[in-house]
């Protein structure tokens, strides 16, 4: 099989997995789901690292550097802000445990 | 071996997303996904023949610093623009990964399918980048949130799209680097032109769609550099964004094409005969004391928050009022329409920040059967999502949109600054209903005054 066919196979199967696991997410969690998914789309960072690391030409180095910065902002910011949001989601029982709740 | 390690990261993404589906496990899910990402980065650093460590390490450090700074500072009300900005960064990164492939590779020697992957990655990434930043500017108030329309807009967009496709085909056949740059440039313009005609209230759809695009851009970059990790991660995000996009358009009962191209909320197609009749109808007004009495002597209250609540920063005041009611033995719930905020689930995050337990938050399907058994509904900064003409008036522009059936409750109190119509520019018959009282005030002041009145009862 050519690498393109393998790639398409992986893409289609992963899309179906995505549809399956995400379609049942309750509305309450849509924002964290989206920012978490957004952070995962920062996986392009591994392409960016490769691009920046092997740069022979100056232009490629500059583009690679910007790509790494952008992807890292996406990854680090995305996961952190998702964590910050999820920390706030509390159930009734969680709230009662707090002394001031 | 390296590919297997990347597979472990991909599995971590899938498990993480799965766990993000329940409030109890969501936080660990996010951490598992983050660990998968960290693993993928480490694998890349050790397995690739990196010669230029300075560039890589400097890029990681700057990006991590910026990302952490933004993530810890951002207000929860600004979450939609934050996610828009992150989407844009991701899109730009994918574009640049493909751009480096153009600069570095000998385009004549690479396979045609790689040419196509690079082009797709550049196009989708560029549209995501500029589209996200226009959305960011609208949400942040840097540019007006209303639709920006001009004559010949559709023709111009179609022309740009046709040119981009033409140049892309030429670039793929001739492997001429100039073709790749021109296509990317046109795609950047399409991103801007595509989002400026879309109004602020339609942002939940736009953000979801751009989220999906940022995933597809990463997947396309994965095809270009033959990385399964990118393809899997990108496909998962593409699917997630698409599901939310579809759910949001269903919540507004408008096809995606209408959201993207109709300039909804510009007043051009909204309003109509509904607005003309506003002047001669009477409303019942209420003050803080009336609201306090109505709430205090109810058995059950459902609160319907809208984006206006977030604008007024009144979440905490609302929580205080609801807590005071619960102490008096009144059951209080919150009914949240899917498009209540500026991104899917936005209102839930704002209420979670105000320490409202998630069990009290009801979605449309959970809330609607309860209204008939509810004594008082308190509406704050919501309008179109409680407009009965969406259900009853086939001539209404929002006819068919699923709404919260608040008019089935015993009594309705609407806190609103004035009688001005909502985002869609449509008059709301609910305001003139005999069981409705209007409390004209800023949401925060109204809630604080009502709480004061409640305590002095």
What does this structure look like?
The complex is a heterodimer of chains A (101) and B (457). With 101 residues, chain A is an all-alpha fold. In chain A, 77% of the residues lie in helices and 0% in strands. Chain A contains 5 helices and no strands. The longest helix of chain A is centred in the C-terminal third of the chain and has 31 residues, at 58-88. The radius of gyration of chain A is 19 Å and the shape is flat. Chain A starts with a helix and ends with a helix. The mean pLDDT of chain A is 88. Chain B folds into 2 domains: 74-261, no CATH class; 284-455, Rossmann fold (3-Layer(aba) Sandwich). Chain B is 59% helix and 7% strand. Chain B has helices at residues 2-19, 26-47, 53-73, 79-104, 112-140, 153-174, 177-195, 203-224, 228-252, 256-261, 273-276, 288-296, 307-311, 315-327, 346-353, 364-367, 389-392, 443-455, and strands at 284-285, 300-305, 331-335, 361-362, 376-380, 411-416, 436-440. A 7-stranded parallel sheet of chain B has the order 1-7-6-5-2-3-4. In chain B, helix 4 (79-104) packs antiparallel against helix 7, helix 4 packs parallel to helix 8 and helix 14 (315-327) runs parallel beside helix 18. The radius of gyration of chain B is 25 Å and the shape is elongated. The model of chain B is unreliable at 267-278 (pLDDT under 50). Chains A and B meet through helix 1, helix 2, helix 3, helix 4 and helix 5 of A and helix 1, helix 2, helix 3, helix 4 and helix 8 of B.
Structural key phrases:
heterodimer, A: 101 residues, mainly alpha, 5 helices, B: 457 residues, alpha/beta, Rossmann fold, 7-stranded parallel β-sheet, 18 helices, 7 strands, 59% helix, 7% strand
């Amino acid at each position: 099989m050519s690498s393109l066919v393998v790639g398409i196979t992986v893409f289609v199967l992963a899309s179906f997995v995505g549809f399956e696991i995400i379609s049942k997410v309750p509305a309450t969690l849509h924002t964290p789901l989206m920012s978490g998914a957004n952070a995962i789309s920062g996986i392009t960072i591994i392409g960016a690292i490769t691009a920046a690391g092997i740069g022979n030409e100056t232009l490629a180095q500059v583009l690679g550097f910007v790509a790494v910065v952008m992807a890292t902002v996406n990854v680090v910011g995305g996961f952190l802000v998702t964590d910050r949001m999820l920390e706030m989601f509390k159930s009734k029982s969680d709230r009662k445990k707090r002394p001031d709740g | 071996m390296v590919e297997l390690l990347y597979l472990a990261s991909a599995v971590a993404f899938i498990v993480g997303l799965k766990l993000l589906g329940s409030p109890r496990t969501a936080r660990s899910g996010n951490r598992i996904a983050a660990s998968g990402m960290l693993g993928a980065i480490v694998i890349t650093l050790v397995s690739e023949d990196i010669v230029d460590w300075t560039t890589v390490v400097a890029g990681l450090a700057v990006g991590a610093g910026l990302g952490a700074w933004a993530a810890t500072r951002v207000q929860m009300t600004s979450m939609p623009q934050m996610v828009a900005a992150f989407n844009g960064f991701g899109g730009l990164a994918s574009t640049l990964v493909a751009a480096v492939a153009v600069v570095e590779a000998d385009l004549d020697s690479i396979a045609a399918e790689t040419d196509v992957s690079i082009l797709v990655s550049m196009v989708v990434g560029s549209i995501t980048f500029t589209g996200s930043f226009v959305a960011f500017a609208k949400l942040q108030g840097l540019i007006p949130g209303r639709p920006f329309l001009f004559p010949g807009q559709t023709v111009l967009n179609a022309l740009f799209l046709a040119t981009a496709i033409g140049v892309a085909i030429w670039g793929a056949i001739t492997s001429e680097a100039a073709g790749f740059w021109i296509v990317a440039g046109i795609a950047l313009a399409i991103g801007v032109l595509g989002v400026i005609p879309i109004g602020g209230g339609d942002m939940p759809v736009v953000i979801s769609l751009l989220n999906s695009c940022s995933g597809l851009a990463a997947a396309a970059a994965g095809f270009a550099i033959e990385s399964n990790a990118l393809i899997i991660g990108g496909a998962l995000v593409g699917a997630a964004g698409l599901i939310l996009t579809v759910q949001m358009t269903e919540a507004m009962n408008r096809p995606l094409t209408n959201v993207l191209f109709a300039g909804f909320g510009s007043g051009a197609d909204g309003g109509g005969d509904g607005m003309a009749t506003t002047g001669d109808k009477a409303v019942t007004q209420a003050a803080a004391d009336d609201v306090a009495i109505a709430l205090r002597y109810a058995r059950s209250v459902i609160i319907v928050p809208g984006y206006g609540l977030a604008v007024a920063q009144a979440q905490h005041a609302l929580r205080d009022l609801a807590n005071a009611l619960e102490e008096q033995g009144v059951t209080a719930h919150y009914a949240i329409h899917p498009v209540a905020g500026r991104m899917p689930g936005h209102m839930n995050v704002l209420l979670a920040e105000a320490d409202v337990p998630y069990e009290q938050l009801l979605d449309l399907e959970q809330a609607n059967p309860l209204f008939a058994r509810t004594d008082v509904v308190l509406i704050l900064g919501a309008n179109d999502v409680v407009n009965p003409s969406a259900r009853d008036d086939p001539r209404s522009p929002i006819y068919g949109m699923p709404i919260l059936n608040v008019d089935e409750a015993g009594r309705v109190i609407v806190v609103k600054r004035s009688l001005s119509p909502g985002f869609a520019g449509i008059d709301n018959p609910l305001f003139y209903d005999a069981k409705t009282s209007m409390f004209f005030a800023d949401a925060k002041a109204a809630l604080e005054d009502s709480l004061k009145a409640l305590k002095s009862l």
